[in-house]
Amino acid sequence: MDLNTLNQAPLPELLAQLGGLYEHSPWIVEQALQRRPFVSLAAFKRACAEVLAAASREAQRGLIRAHPELAGKAMVAGALTAESTGEQARAGLTHCSPAEFDTLQRLNADYNQRFGWPFILAVRGPRGTGLTRRQIIDTFERRLHAHAEDEFHECLRQIHRIAELRLAEKFHEALPAGEQVWDWAEALARHSDAPDALTVTYLTPAHRACAQDLQDWMRATGFDEVSLDAVGNVVGVYHGQDRSAPRVLTGSHYDTVRNGGRYDGRLGILAPMALVQAWAAKGWRPRHGLEVVGFAEEEGQRFPATFLASSALVGRFEPGWLEQQDAAGLTLRQAMQAAGLPGTLASIEALRREPAQYLGFVEIHIEQGPVLDAMNLPLGVVSSINGSHRYTGEVLGVASHAGTTPMGAARRDAAVAVAELVLQVERIAAALPEAVGTVGQLEVPAGSINVVPGRCRFSLDLRAPRDAVRDRLRDEVLQALDANCQRRGLQYTLRPTLSADAAPSHPDWMARWEAAVAALGLPVFRLPSGAGHDAMKMHELLPQAMLFVRGGNAGISHNPLETITAHDAQLAVDALQHLLENL
Questions:
Q1: CA dist 208 to 232, 238, 335, 558, Å?
Q2: For residue 543, what is the domain's CATH number?
Q3: Looking at the chain, which terminus has fewer C-beta neighbours within 10 angstroms, N or C?
Q4: Are residues 392 and 378 in the same domain?
Q5: Are 117 and 239 in a shared domain?
Q6: Cα separation of 86 and 509, whole Å?
Q7: Are 31 and 125 contained in the same domain?
Q8: Long-range own/partner contacts, residues 332-337 (CB < 8 A, 24 or more apart)
Q9: Which stretches make up the Peptidase M20 dimerisation domain (predicted)?
């Protein structure tokens, strides 16, 4: 099959070929085909998703219940559809050991009892090559404890993934860039500071091994220049047709949080690498050259100098950072020199980029949140990176006997004031456009079960995509804290720990991302970034805009469950290609 067939073949013929995409539910494909013509397979898949999203809850539940159990009675009886038979066989479920089979039967029974529908998982996985039986069982056990509503929608998302893989087979869909990105991310994840988790912190042996891999891959894919700079950034340059024309700068970070995921940051390095590989293979060059930076540090896990790598490129590297110490007492300067870097301020200051030599900075990044996954959208255009205010604070009251201190004005309960603040933060943030507020730390020092808390420590994390909204959120929250303490006869201290301005995307570059997404046949969806990114620093020097890629497992990030599909990675590379080739 091909796109022309999809758009022009008679409906009965297409239903005969595509009706099995959704298990025993040809109505989804039939209604989606009413929207022909489609500019891409992605557009057709989106139409199917919209049909299902608009269906009644009962129709959605019926679709879920139409699916067979994994290694269940239908498989044993040979009663699966041809599609399900092939999928379960390729996942090895037809060759389970007795212990594995018994485990799956128990899980099927427990899951059905808890939710009332069969467990659904795209067993061919995010790469399309199949999950192992161990991965399937682990996922089954994890999702068995999910909230029922969350699990219902996860089943629907897995159904769409199953349909996507089935459609790819029928169209012999090639994903060379997406699969390459996925494979690179897997290979890079073999380097870790920890034996049992992915942890890569600045300038450790694992970090340096990642840098070496990136350099080797860049050279192999066809970059004209590859280097490691004075802060450990990996820099690859692919020259354009006109070497005097300004370049486009792109990239992201390759360090991780402790026990992190494979795609946070790294996707933004690997996607442009895959594009350069495709360009170089056919001997093609864009008019404007492309410079890809694998930023050495963004997470602030080893030294407190967060964004030190991108700060160097914008001329904002603080001299005092060189004397910061890690947990072992090693200074940043010493760590740099031990890694073979100069460790001098002069060498770092020389890394500052000249704005006139660049058109702008673009970054591809996994969303790190649930929005795109919930909307079944593979790509989203970032409108702004949130600005933030952070504080640590303490409310001071009077510790007293819990049994003999009457309720009411006699009590000076510090914890109650902070508990009230937690709810106020939630209410105030929810009432402001795209603002978020979090009290992430709560502590009653030396608290006791029979003592009214005399002290309560807390944190505040307040964010919004526009500085005016961020500041209003701060003002209203701090006013609420002050009012709480005055009313209850309490005192408080508050220490600011961070204040970062929002980084709105440049309108022209955001429009270029939107045009690229639309060209793929996908709806254009804007969303803010609640997390910080290297683009936030580059914003201080160059116009910037970001593209988000959907994360699986409800968008979880900074977590081993972080995942993307090869299909979504391919779309990200295709979008970047459209943006760069149409400048």
A1: 8, 23, 12, 21
A2: 3.40.630.10
A3: C
A4: no
A5: no
A6: 44
A7: yes
A8: 332/303, 332/305, 332/308, 335/202, 335/203, 335/302, 335/303, 336/203, 336/230, 336/231, 336/232
A9: 387-484
CATH code of 401's domain: 3.30.70.360
What is the Cβ-side half-sphere exposure of residue 193, based on CA atoms within 13 angstroms?
A: 16
Judge residue 511's burial from the number of C-beta atoms within 10 Å of its C-beta, 0-12 exposed, 13-18 middle, 19 or more buried. Answer: middle
- Do 70 and 120 lie in a common domain? yes
Domain encompassing residue 481: 387-501
Q: Is the peptide bond prior to 37 cis by the omega test (within 30 degrees of 0)?
A: yes
Structure tokens at 356: 């006139």
pLDDT (tens digit, 0 to 9) for every residue of the chain, 583 residues total? 999 999 999 999 999 999 999 999 999 999 999 999 999 999 999 999 999 999 999 999 999 999 999 887 777 667 678 788 778 877 788 888 899 999 999 999 999 999 999 999 999 999 999 999 999 999 999 999 999 999 999 999 999 999 999 999 999 999 999 999 999 999 999 999 999 999 999 999 999 999 999 999 999 999 999 999 999 999 999 999 999 999 999 999 999 999 999 999 999 999 999 999 999 999 999 999 999 999 999 999 999 888 999 999 999 999 999 999 999 999 999 999 999 999 999 999 999 999 999 999 999 999 999 999 999 999 999 999 999 999 999 999 999 999 999 998 889 999 999 999 999 999 999 999 999 999 999 999 999 999 999 999 999 999 999 999 999 999 999 999 999 999 999 999 999 988 889 999 999 999 999 999 999 999 999 999 999 899 999 999 999 999 999 999 999 999 999 999 999 999 999 999 999 999 9
Reduced to 3 DSSP states, what percent helix, strand and coil does the chain have, rounded to the nearest 5?
45, 15, 40
Domain co-membership, 354 together with 217: yes
Looking at the structure, tell me whether residues 192 and 322 fall in a common domain: yes
Dist. CA 165–CA 276, nearest whole Å: 26
Q: Six-digit token pair at 535?
A: 């683009």
Amino acid letter, 62 = G
pTM above the 0.70 mark? yes
